[in-house]
Design brief:
The complex is a heterodimer of chains A (about 110) and B (about 120). Chain A is mostly beta strands and about 110 residues long. Chain A contains no helices and 12 strands. In chain A, the strands form 3 sheets. In chain A, strands 2, 5, 6, 10, 11 and 12 form a 6-stranded mixed beta sheet that branches. Chain B is mainly β.
Chain lengths: ~110, ~120
């Protein structure tokens, strides 16, 4: 069965520091991988996706993600965190529309 | 451009009542999804449609839940009769693309917060 894991419930980082939100997946065949962000009382917003090609994918708001096939990972990264990045982040597999449990990111001023 | 529109944004009703949630997808999008979000179970896919046809409803919890998509611009999710354990935030999402909709990003509405007393 296809699945997504986000091993950290919560990630805390200081403003200006780099951030990483982790995601691992289990998919038969080539994966379609997505990152979404959710702010309070709002729906999920698409950040970026990996379908094929370059392993480093750039997305909205300065976020990027690195696809690593050997480690079956798709970690979300940003070089310099902002307080406004504080939100709930979801990794997802496209083939069966499965979302990870979410990671709450808190960026501290 | 208008995004995915859901109504109502909040619904409070008593156990046993019928609840109808509504969704207007983004114009031109071929696929529509209904999700339920709770603290305990996270985000769960209930059902999805492609070109107005239900493709997979295996996530629908039980017969009390039903979904329809009578045309490309409207979908409903109905719960009858409702129970307290149905309390959750229900999201509708749409995406473009035909047969390759699984590699397209989804655009979410802001959800309906449902409370069953």
């Amino acid at each position: 069965a296809q699945s997504v894991a986000q091993p950290e419930d919560q990630v805390n980082v200081a403003e200006g520091n780099p951030l990483t939100v982790k995601c691992t997946y289990s998919v038969s065949g080539n994966p379609y991988l997505f990152w979404y962000v959710q702010y309070p009382n709002r729906g999920l917003q698409f950040l970026l996706k990996y379908i094929t090609g370059d392993n480093l994918v750039k997305g909205s708001y300065g976020f990027e993600a690195e696809f690593n096939k050997s480690q079956t990972s798709f970690h979300l990264k940003k070089p310099s965190a902002l307080v406004s990045d504080s939100a709930l982040y979801f990794c997802a597999v496209g083939q069966n529309f499965v979302f990870g449990p979410g990671t709450r990111l808190s960026v501290l001023p | 451009d208008a995004g995915v529109i859901q109504s109502p944004r909040h619904e409070v009703t008593e156990m046993g009542q019928e609840v109808t949630l509504r969704c207007k997808p983004i114009s031109g999008h071929n696929s529509l999804f209904w999700y339920r979000q709770t603290m305990m179970r996270g985000l769960e896919l209930l059902i999805y449609f492609n070109n107005n046809v239900p493709i997979d409803d295996s996530g629908m919890p039980e017969d009390r839940f039903s979904a329809k998509m009578p045309n490309a611009s409207f979908s409903t999710l109905k719960i009858q009769p409702s129970e307290p354990r149905d309390s959750a935030v229900y999201f509708c999402a749409s995406s473009p693309g035909g047969t390759e909709y699984s590699n397209q990003p989804q655009h979410f509405g802001d959800g309906t917060r449902l409370s069953i007393l």
